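Progress report, Aim 2. The chain analyzed during this reporting quarter is listed below.
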Amino acid sequence: MTLNLDAINQERHTLSAIFSMCLVALVFSMAQSFKGPAELAAQELMELTTTLIEPLFEKPKPPEARPEPKPKNVPPAPTPTPAPRQELKQEVMVPAESMRAAPAQSAAPVAQTTPAAPSAPVAQATPEIPRPVAPQVPPSLSLENNYIASVRNTLNANKRYPTGREASLQRPAGKVKIAFVLARNGSLVEASVEESSNSIILDNAALATVRRTNYAPWPDGTWPLQSQHKFTVSLDFVPLN
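Predicted structure tokens for the chain:
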């Protein structure tokens, strides 16, 4: 756009110069005809014309360059900081078989690549193995078992091998299982042979042992809601030498 305006102005100045020259020529021709005062007027007109023409032949001044607007102060964009490199920790898993064969292979040196930086050992938490908890025995059951054991020991202590002619001749041997019922105060209610020894002599000896034994009363808290309880004891008879 600026170049087009300069070209139009240049053409306008050229046309004005040509017109002025024609005017000067016309005035000069008229001045020749009117000498005297006309020459003075022509000379003044000539000077006026030259003053008008001289600017036309001067080169137009280049347009002044407008200063570009300065950009506003924009804060510089933050430079991204490189992320720190993370060292890869490589765990070497040694199979159990190679650990067992290590003493045999210790004679030959093995080249092992060591990492650039030793990594700290990672502590692995070993799971705790729960210990088996022994079942708690109720106090009443423990007292009952102790009473049964005391009755059995008392009967074995009172056990006597039968005497008599038949026993000395037959010399029977065997085990008799006796079932008997005791009251809470320890008195015997009844007794019977539950498993025979195939010898009447031994069966009668076992019944006699149960009937002549004195039993202690039940401990407090044993066999609740019972006034009588059945017991079974096995008595083993061996002939004397």
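The CA atoms of residues 61 and 176 lie 148 Å apart. The two ends are 150 Å apart (CA to CA). These observations will guide the mutagenesis work planned for the next reporting period.
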